Write the structure tokens for this entry.
Amino acid sequence: MNIKKLFGKRIKEIRTRLYLTQEELAERVGISAKSLSQIELGNNFISAENLSAICSALKINPKVLFDFQTEEEENNFEYVVSKLKDNKILLNKISQIIQIIE
């Protein structure tokens, strides 16, 4: 799969996890829903300005959009642990939750 398709697929995955429609995200970014659809399909790529706007709208770091891990890898325990180690604040919160549960 080429990078445009992987990138578009990643935007769609994150958008749907946040329960946003294409229309809602497009409005937040300042582009048409048709343009966003073409990006998600991998037919078009985005400008640096739109990349920044999408990241702001999704409240993510741009590198997240280029993390093309497969769903199988995301469900892999080692992968999850490695991602948690990358995010020390989240790891600390999860540790606190585990302590409360125990």
